[in-house]
Design brief:
Helices cover 36% and strands 19% of the residues. The protein is α/β, with parallel strands linked by helices. The chain starts with 7 loop residues before the first strand and ends in a 5-residue tail after the last strand. Bound molecules: uridine-5'-diphosphate (UDP).
Length: 242
């Protein structure tokens, strides 16, 4: 078994991934297959923190359409991330990955409160740690929460799983000649307004020199490949030609 080149990582994917082919909700098959990918990848010896979005259930930005105040909508979105984390926890435990769900919004009967030192302790003990409820504050995204948690726990890299191979010069779902970009600086992502993560998340990574890799999580084995040193997807870092 190849060993991970990273000691500790944070993996982030959006809630939409969990919906699979559906418009919203949770696909049991998708959750199961992600759990098995993560379980295989974790066997490389890496410590994994996991952040899942909530867009498959509720997004604060859509709240105003339903006459719901934005901050309230954001709280609903954060609760959605807890639902997704519980679904993922269950699937991971079914494939024998020990997990803990931590939440930024207290919910003592369901999950542990997020306490940084406790999170690090879980990771050291080999428990996959799910960081739910985003940052706990409205007007942020789970991309930002993932960047924040990755920095707080001293992760080596923030890995963002998507449905495409990485960052492209054009939308690969619309343009057949879109080209994959292997490396970008944080500044390039911000200046070109590449919508891979929101600018708050990118800025946070830039200020703290946390590299980001965007990869295709739909291809079986990709997470393990990435963790064991294969160059896949797009990497965003401070260096010009890393
Ligand atoms: N959210 C928030 N604060 C956070 C993280 C998330 O208010 O720190 C809310 C926000 O309304 C967001 C929703 O939770 O729209 C779901 O998160 P996100 O949109 O990041 O999910 P994804 O698009 O990754 O599925």
């Amino acid at each position: 078994m190849n060993k991970s080149i990273f000691k500790r990582v944070v993996l982030k994917f959006s809630g939409e991934v969990l919906a699979g082919d559906k418009e919203f909700g949770i696909s049991a098959d998708v959750v199961k297959s992600i759990a098995s990918e993560i379980s295989d990848a974790k066997a490389s010896g890496v410590e994994i923190g996991l952040v899942i979005g909530g867009g498959n259930i509720f997004r604060g930005l859509n709240a105003e359409d339903s006459n719901i105040d934005r901050a309230t909508g954001d709280q609903m979105g954060m609760l959605a991330t807890i639902i997704n984390s519980l679904a993922m926890q269950d699937a991971l435990e079914n494939v024998n990955v020990e997990t803990r769900v931590l939440t930024a919004i207290r919910m003592d009967e369901i999950a542990e409160p997020y306490i940084r030192r406790r999170a690090v302790r879980h990771l050291e003990k080999g428990r996959l740690t799910l960081f739910s409820a985003g940052t706990g504050s409205p007007y942020f995204t789970t991309d930002t929460a993932a960047a924040l948690r990755a920095i707080e726990i001293g992760a080596d890299i923030l890995i963002k799983g998507t449905k495409v191979d990485g960052i492209f010069d054009k939308d690969p779902e619309k343009d057949n000649d879109a080209k994959l970009i292997k490396h970008l600086t944080y500044m390039e992502v911000l200046e070109k307004n590449l919508r891979v993560m929101d600018s708050t998340a990118i800025s946070l990574c830039m200020e703290n020199n946390l590299p980001i890799t965007v990869y295709n999580m739909k291809k079986p084995g990709n997470l393990k490949r990435l963790l064991t040193g294969e160059k896949i997807g797009t990497t965003v870092s401070g260096e010009k030609n890393a």
